[in-house]
């Protein structure tokens, strides 16, 4: 059998409605990890939906508890065909954000897959049930086409807590490095650059959430009796934030700015057009770092966002000077940013600008990652994607958002290749979330051909990757 023939079989399987049937079952399971009462559903998803499809392909299952979040277990599934073959690690998460049932459009519900034109609506259809279902289906197509073999060793890692920042995932990878040992990592999450263009991204921006607060006094004071005599924490905090990021969204903290965009990254991003697609919000062309294109601002720059601000009672404002003010902010950053010293950098900047009273509290954070775009694995993957889709795929040095990619790239030391099967306007984390049928079908054909070629060329491409990484080869 050839790559073309197995792709034709995969397309026929999809067109018979079998993928839709699988996705409908999985969407129907309310696996909301943000709710403490969903433990049964989270476990059932792995036992009833994921495990059977992998056991049928001869995978050995390893059920691992989560010491940091007991309601979010892990499943590691391994299939070893031959120690002389390369090993691929794949990843998916079966948990979803809150269903937000009451706010979906009339006729839609988060727990029932609904079809309208090219759209399949349902919570998790895009993030991440639809995406990992595509990849499992591609493995099944290869397994059957090769008569019960893949042509490579395969390990799959499933978590059920990604939507609550993946508690326990890093510890799992540190403790079970031998179980998860592999030669390369291929997975799907996040969006393409747009609905029409297949995309490969090599990592993700990092993310740090932090809190800024001013606690001036214990109680509010009448603004008529004390205005002009007492400091206003809300006014002070607004000005403090303005010293961190200006009126055009440009980061003002020198120590937290992104490194200069390299020539290689600039060349990659010159081929990327962001926004301007149906369903996208209208971008502000004057917003963001000066001297950068829109794609560079999204994928190669650091951005500081104010997520929320509170002073007084916004629902019932009083004629009083609020005693405190608080803001939760976020820094999205690229590789090379000194994010681990964020608190000290912010404190030094605020003191220098006259705001020593602002307290900075680190909330949570994850590193930025990026595979070298000159790695032979990158061109190999892009060529297969182009051959399968008949389109020029987009290459992103990293996703604009964040993923737990650091556990695979840094802890496990793997080259990471992400091929998303969604698009920016999918409604991810909002109401009316949906997957495009056209992307799911195209994604299945891409992954089927890619995994077929991994079985054909795996040892050779892994050898080229290793040679590229050794100093003697450069």
TrEMBL record:
One of its GO terms (molecular function) is metal ion binding. One of its GO terms (biological process) is proteolysis. The keyword Manganese does not apply. Keywords: Hydrolase, Metal-binding, Protease. Residues 204-353 form the Peptidase M20 dimerisation domain. The keyword Hydrolase applies. This is Peptidase M20 dimerisation domain-containing protein.
